[in-house]
Sequence to fold (200 residues):
Amino acid sequence: MYQNDEDLELPYDTKLGALLHNDSFKAILKPSMLMELDIVRLYGNNAAHGKNIRALEALQALKNSFRFLSWLSKYYSQENPEIADFDERLIPYGDVADKTKKELQALTEQFDKEREQANKLAKKQAVLAEENEKLKQQLEAQLQIIASRKEERSASIRWSLKRALNLLCNRCRCHGCNRPQQIRSDSSRHHPERSICAGR
Fold:
């Protein structure tokens, strides 16, 4: 109000009590409404400092605030708004608040359980992933060993074959011959000595 109403002069002390008791502010309000606002201020301060507020006092503060806000909307609106009467039945009381608190607590407990389950599942998946990585590394190592042994075995076979061919060529007196000639005919299969060397 002080920022938008030119008739209101902002005092040096900007606390709520000083704003309510400022002369320019008191000039536009009825004394009864000023008293009602002062009651709202008093109950609000007591609640802020941890003092117990009775239900009737809280209800009175709500009624006073509603009356002031109704006056404010009519006085500062370009058009005259329609304002409904104060309806106490719309105010949530302790049973509703307790129910809401219990529902919130239940949701919090459910969320904590779901989060705990999610954490357990994440840890389990991490363990499985680590085990899978170890198994993968072991498998790769075994495959490398198998490939190395296979290569060694192939090299040994090639060396043995080469040595056998050299021995056969030496027996046939085929100097410089690295491999036997192909069998010329089916009949030579019965006489292998004929197909060992082309010179015989």
Summary: The chain has two domains: 16-91, 96-190. Residues 96-190 form one domain. The two ends are 128 Å apart (CA to CA). The first helix runs from residue 16 to 20.
